[in-house]
Amino acid sequence: MKNIFKITLVFALIAISIACTSDDNNSDSDDCTPTTWYQDLDGDGLGNAAVSQSSCDQPSGYVADNTDTDDSANTNTLHEAFADFDANNLDIALSGDNVVIQTNGLPNHTSPYWSNTTSRTATDPMGNTITTVSSSNHENWIEPIVTTNEQMAPGNIDDFNGSYSLTVSANPQLASSSSATGLGAIGIAVSGAMIYNDEEGPNVPLDDAVGSLDYTAAHTGPQSYHYHLETKAWSEDDDELIGIIADGFFIYGRKCNSTGTYPTDLDASGGHTSTTQHTTTAEYHYHIQNELYLNSYYILFPGDYQGTPSNIQ
């Protein structure tokens, strides 16, 4: 009888222990006050008041805030072509449906327009005589190859060090009608410097200024170091990415990556729709047109914008 009593007592104690443990768990559960969490589909830290759930712990993808008026997921990603832009000179980031491109305006290659100890004198468009000379040679300075010190424009690359910004759509579209380019920057090159059109001034063709261009078809003034013609520092008679035009479309060299040769279906602005080395889906983009200018050169962008341009500031 004693043994039966002892066994019964042991089971009773075990039952009491289990009951206590269960009560403790219930007590912890009772202590929790559920919080209402709101879905944050776009990951901006603001929640959608129309989609919520209550729980003690914060669910993944939900936040305590409920003030988001547009919680649609942003499916935009940076185009693969932006990987070719020099990260030392440019900052490129998504901002909602747009891409913000910021550059210091400096090129990433050699040029006789970098600061140097050679004194040169030139006359600016206002008729002022300007003498350019520095105390030392920049590490990327080289002697002029196709131009001369006498022909070079006033000012060195270093003198135009500034910031430029362009905001374009992450998914640019062709406009219902084209629009003319203006003087000044119409695009940003992968090097960090500016892209200009085929005019040297208001209704002034580039003809008389060609002699001032360095080996990569660029010179200084009035606001920046910039390219007018095929950028031989990194692209000559090939399909290399040149940069982005102010309407958001990329511009490539004279050859098309999809065919390995010169495209024959370009519109008046040098644009067409095809795949590139940066995408397997056909998309609209520009090319340097394979048409000789002054029997020796190829103009970067002689046409109109086919998209809606933004200002480069």
Short structural description:
The protein has 313 residues and is mainly β. The protein is 10% helix and 28% strand. The protein has one helix spanning 2-31, and strands at residues 35-39, 48-55, 62-63, 90-95, 98-103, 120-123, 129-132, 164-169, 174-179, 187-189, 194-195, 199-201, 204-205, 218-219, 226-227, 241-245, 250-252, 271-276, 279-287, 305-307.
Task: Please indicate the percent range of residues in DSSP E strands (runs of 2 or more).
Answer: 25-35%
Strand order of the largest sheet: 14-15-11-10-16-17-19-18
Radius of gyration: 32 Å
Instruction: State the oligomer.
Output: single chain
Give the helix tally.
1
Mean pLDDT equals 88
Shape: elongated
> How many DSSP E strands?
20
- CA-to-CA gap between the ends? 99 Å
Largest sheet: 8 strands, mixed
Question: How does the helix and strand content classify structurally?
Answer: mainly beta
Uncertain residue ranges: 1-29
Listing every helix as H and every strand as E from the N terminus to the C terminus, the arrangement reads HEEEEEEEEEEEEEEEEEEEE
Explain how this protein is built.
The N terminus is likely disordered. The relative contact order is 0.12. The chain has 313 residues and is mainly β. The protein contains 1 helix and 20 strands. The N and C termini lie far apart (99 Å).
Sequence-ordered SSE layout with sheet pairings:
Elements: H1 2-31, E1 35-39, E2 48-55, E3 62-63, E4 90-95, E5 98-103, E6 120-123, E7 129-132, E8 164-169, E9 174-179, E10 187-189, E11 194-195, E12 199-201, E13 204-205, E14 218-219, E15 226-227, E16 241-245, E17 250-252, E18 271-276, E19 279-287, E20 305-307
Parallel strand pairs: 11-15, 17-19
Antiparallel strand pairs: 1-2, 1-3, 4-5, 5-8, 6-7, 9-20, 10-11, 10-16, 12-13, 14-15, 16-17, 18-19
